[in-house]
Amino acid sequence: MTQHRLSNVEVGQNYLAKELDSFVSTTDVVVLSNNESQLFTDPERQYKVVDVFEGFFEHSAEDGEKYFREKKAYIVEKV
């Protein structure tokens, strides 16, 4: 089986779910998909990276505060 290791993805490019799976497994990122929990259910499905953010705000359940996390977040949608 061929390895699909990605260390970077680019906005506007299409990737197979198995390539995005590899990217997420080897890189500290967040991926948001328009098909919710089914992102990795079909390894051959294609997704387009439509946007990337350098970080995001997250609410802490522990202290009720909001914190900015410097962690890239990629938006992908089914092709």
Secondary structure layout plus pairing:
Layout lengths: L13 E3 H10 L3 E4 L12 E8 L2 E4 L6 E4 L3 E6 L1
Parallel strand pairs: 2-6
Antiparallel strand pairs: 1-3, 3-6, 4-5
Uncertain residue ranges: none
Helix content: 10-25%
How far apart, in Å, are the first and last alpha carbons? 24 Å
- Principal-axes geometry comes out as elongated
In the sheet with the most strands, the strands line up as: 1-3-6-2
Structural class by SSE content:
mainly beta
Biggest β-sheet: count, sense, barrel?
Answer: 4 strands, mixed
How many discrete domains?
1
Task: Describe the 3D structure.
The protein is mainly beta. It has one domain. Helices cover 13% and strands 37% of the residues. It has a four-stranded mixed sheet. A hairpin with a 6-residue loop joins strand 4 (56-59) and strand 5. The longest helix has 10 residues, at 17-26. The chain is elongated and about 40 Å long. The mean pLDDT is 92.
Quick structural summary:
This protein is mainly beta and 79 residues long. The chain has one helix spanning 17-26, and strands at 14-16, 30-33, 46-53, 56-59, 66-69, 73-78.
Question: What key attributes describe this structure?
Answer:
mainly beta, four-stranded mixed beta sheet, elongated
